[in-house]
Amino acid sequence: MFHSLRARLVAWSSALLAVALVACGALVAYSTWSAWLGEVDRGLATRMHSLTTAIRPAADGAFDVVVPTDVLPNPERDYYGIWDGQGHLILASHPDVAESVPSTGHVLRNSRREQVTSLASGMTVMVGRRIDNLETEIRRLVVAMTGVGVLALALVLGGGWWMVGRALAPIERISHTARSMIDGDLSARIPIPRVESELTQLAGVLNEAFDRLYASLERQRQFTADASHDLRTPLTILHAESHWALARPRSVEEYRASLDVCQRAAVRMQALVQSLLDLARAQSAGDSVRSLCSVSDTITAVVRDLQPIAAARHVTVTAGVCDGVVAADPISLMAAVTNLVTNAIQYNVEGGTVDITSTVADGWVDVAVHDTGVGLEAHHAERVFDRFYRVDASRDGRTGGAGLGLAVVAAFARSHGGTATATSTPARGSTFCLRLPAQPM
Amino acid sequence: MRILLVEDEADLARALARTFADEGWIVDLAGDGDDALTMARIGPHDLIVLDVMLPRLNGWDVLETLRREGYATPILLLTARDLVTDRVRGLDSGADDYLTKPFSPQELLARMRALVRRAAHQAGPEVMVGPLRIDTVARRVHGPDGELDITAREFAILSLLVRRRGQVVTRQEISDALYDDDTEVMSNTIDVHIGSLRRKLGPGLIHTRRGVGYLLDA
């Protein structure tokens, strides 16, 4: 595609130039020739006048002529002829002058220019000049112009080929980069030359698109890797623990401890699978599963469900209600609010409080969950909604969840046209806010 | 044989450590990358089983740091990532083997035995020493008159001497391979085991280098 585009561009511009050159050349040659011929004709007219005024008709059809010298200013080229009323050549300056009477007017033939005039006496007078030298000159001019034209065309062809090639080089780089991306090198980017042009802008736009695509693929890959890690680890524990227990007879206490380990692994896997299902549901909750949900009813139900966990950690949960209604998948809404409150309980200090407020304003329902926990550094607060993101980099099960709880909240908010945000003061506590479009009552 | 197990998942670490102990191996356990480096430098270990995803210093860094320091002990990487690029990176960074979670414990044990064998330049799982045939997988010793009755401790000493065949093995090295750091070892315990082993194997195999240690040579 690229090569034919280059060839087409160069061919078209060269063809246009060729037409222009030919037209120019023809115009120059024609006007030069006309100017020269006009000059010759003016000379012929002067000579004709001299000759005719020199002819003195006598009685009985005879005449008398004394040819003045200015009739033949250049005897090598100039000639004349005079015919009588009967058509007989009666005087000629040159043996080549034909016997027969020529027709009157200006004639150009055999490299000669002739003017023929009939006189009142019936005589015919002709003056002529050989102009083969002018024809040679005009031919030389045409050859010279053709040479210059061909040279100009060659320059335009070569230079155009080079310049168009340079101008289109980014396209080749773009296709080369795209090719290496197809081959799996997703980090390939189009090199952008320093000189700005439309194509460098295109390359910039494409690079940005590649970056986004790469980032989204990378997120997907990271998600898959994290999910598989979090499934593989408890599976490995199950494998290793059961292998050890079955290798030889063990004591009852040892069996009990082994089963305990196996159960913990199973619970971890179950929690992860549940989170993955929640996430999938929150991401894809379509209109068909949405219904009008009372925010305060949801909060009340969540608080009731989580009361035992809060009590076990000596955390007090308070909830302020509002009359906000949202159109949401009730299961995902429940999961999102549950995850927010669970998170606030889990990362709280012993004896701390979790304060849930909900407000309706400007067409939005805001559910804010405030805790008195350890809080988050700003760079953690930004990423805390990412899937599998954990503030503690070690990916073990000690802190409980798989790191998907807040990701479920964020996915739910996104798919329902809302937002999920976190603000935090380290060592003071955090506030997680879920904002959803309010439904008019 | 002394293994350094680096694994931050407490349940998995415990299960693997007990499985290794069943094999008669001594296990040192490190829960993060920093501890792993410290314990590996103190040594000596016959093998490191290293999880890649660790708190503080990850497994790649531990691996690369140790290899940069000239640490030559075989290292087996454990990871939950099974991308080819990860495997290539692991092996090219100086790991000797690579196992992806979830794995079967039998396979892990077999790979560990193979790594240790290779490090000791043993051709196969069975080693011939004079009239003895030693099976390092089944942990049995066959003499000219049938199988010898050898305890786990004695076998551990014998397999260490076999791995270092023709070289002097110090009493400290034997003690490191037999006991973890929490066990108080009496000064003559090693001599007692060696004496018993010598009686069972017959004369002319285990030689004493006074003041240095012992050496196996047929």
Describe, in plain words, how this protein is organized in 3D.
The complex is a heterodimer of chains A (about 450) and B (about 220). Chain A has about 450 residues and is an alpha+beta fold. Among the domains of chain A are: about 130 residues, no CATH class; about 150 residues, Heat Shock Protein 90, CATH 3.30.565. Chain A has 8 helices and 14 strands. In chain A, β3 and β4 form a beta hairpin. Chain A is rod-shaped. The two termini of chain A are about 60 Å apart. Chain B is globular, with a radius of gyration of 18 Å. In chain B, α2 runs parallel beside α3 and α6 crosses α8. Chain B has 2 domains: about 120 residues, 3-Layer(aba) Sandwich (Rossmann fold), CATH 3.40.50; about 90 residues, Orthogonal Bundle (Arc Repressor Mutant, subunit A), CATH 1.10.10.10. In chain B, strands 2-1-3-4-5 form a 5-stranded parallel β-sheet, with helices on both faces. In chain B, about 40% of the residues lie in helices and about 20% in strands. The mean pLDDT of chain B is about 85. Chain B is α/β, with parallel strands linked by helices and about 220 residues long. At the A-B interface, α3 and α4 of A face α1 of B.
